[in-house]
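I'll show a typical protein example:
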Amino acid sequence: MNTQQKLIAASKIVFGGLADIQSEEQNFQKEWKHADSRALDLMKSMPPDKLAEAIKNMEQALNQKRNILKSGNQSPKAMKKILLGAVDDRLLLYQIHSKLKTLVKHISAKKISKLDLWIAHKLFFNRYSVRRCPRLGIAKLIWRIIKNKGAVANLLQEHGIYCVYTREFISGLVRLLKPYGRILEVAAGDGALSSELGMAGVKVHATDNKNWDKNIRYPDRVEDLDASAALKVDGPQAVLCSWPPSGNAFEKDIFETPSVELYIAIVSRHEYAAGYFAAYKEQSTFSMEEDADLSGVLFPPEPQHRVLIFRRIS
């Protein structure tokens, strides 16, 4: 691999998704091993609250480097140094998140009983294993019966399901979206959110670049399209994203798309778990508020869902 090829590969790691990082492991073996060692040292030496704060700071540092690289306002030598530094940051964050996921699996790895699986399937899926949209009261009542909630929640996440949309949530979202004509969902995964909204009378164009490392079944209604490209093609008035990847490279593009008047992001109260919080705080063209009512009707409660509403400031 020559210098130019390595720089291109480095850009994939810094600005791409998980699949891009994994595809470049062989080209960055030294950096990969170093990040693995650093991640282990940090996780051994820091309590959970300090580690969460460290992750947040690392993500902010990475996003600052991304912004500099996008601006191109440095000499080629300086840009190369910043790019390779950003590779180290991204790989370290990747290794930490990977190990945290493994740790969560280990903690909740008690065997899920057949009863728990049966209850969870009846609650969250129909007879064809398609996600259902339960009423919140029923979901809460049935959820109490499940003994190993952590293992069930982890199993859902393994299939790309970070939250279940209740009927109350969909009704609230419909009221917010009805004034808008062109609505786009990015990083839509299995398209469950846009599907439920469609059945409620709100047409949503669902897109995803389909490179998640999850056991996700992408239906035909979810177009294979990168979020940034979808924004350019659609020129949407409203945009949705449910659990955008942590430190992603596309949410900033949402704020910079002139046609967008409303952006709704479903994230977690743990800023390192989902979303691009640096972009949320840096942008100045949208107001930001949490819709507590919508946050409270997502399920299950363990991930501590948070629905953020961004409205363009006129």
